[in-house]
Automatic annotation (TrEMBL):
This is TetR family transcriptional regulator. InterPro entries: Cro/C1-type_HTH, Homeodomain-like_sf, HTH-type_TetR-like_transc_reg, Tet_transcr_reg_TetR-rel_C_sf. One of its GO terms (molecular function) is DNA-binding transcription factor activity. Keywords: DNA-binding, Transcription, Transcription regulation. It comes from Pseudonocardia hierapolitana. The lineage of its organism: Bacteria, Bacillati, Actinomycetota, Actinomycetes, Pseudonocardiales. Gene3D superfamilies: Tetracycline Repressor, domain 2 (1.10.357.10).
Amino acid sequence: MVRTAGRPGRPARLSRELIVAAALQGDLASLTMRELAARLGVSHSALYRWVADRDELFDLISEVMVERILPTSEPSPADWRDWLARLAWAMHDEFLAVPGYAAHVAAPHRHNPHSFGRLRDQVITAFRAAGASPEMAAQSWYVFGLSVVQWLGAQQTGHDLGPVAPRFDLFLDTLLRGLPARTPVEHPR
């Protein structure tokens, strides 16, 4: 039998989109590759042809999450702070909507260099639009990124945050008023 169109063999039952959609249906903290394969209705060996391990799975998930959260517009000198606020609220909404994702991103691990690199570059662009030097824009990225991700991770893991739940709007307002970073005045020791 000769096929004249398409690829030979069975059509693919998996795709990047299907794998990520299935992974996002449950708690990522406890998700196993076998459980994910079962959700997809494939053998775990078939899944491993698409993703080698949990790290690669989280890379795929992070690519999708960064696509969801990055504003479509570029930050400008007139709106850099609003742009960062939109980004932070999108991170809040998307990261907390997926059980285990914010906690995973907040924990020490190798981040996806492509997706988080795009996020970093856009945030640095926002701080450059605010007038920060390249060095201070990069430092501001670390302050912004770590602060938002750690806040979200703490929210998701339910660490004891005290008797009053911290409000994201107050946290974000305070954070953005202090950015971009400036070279600090040297303090005597």
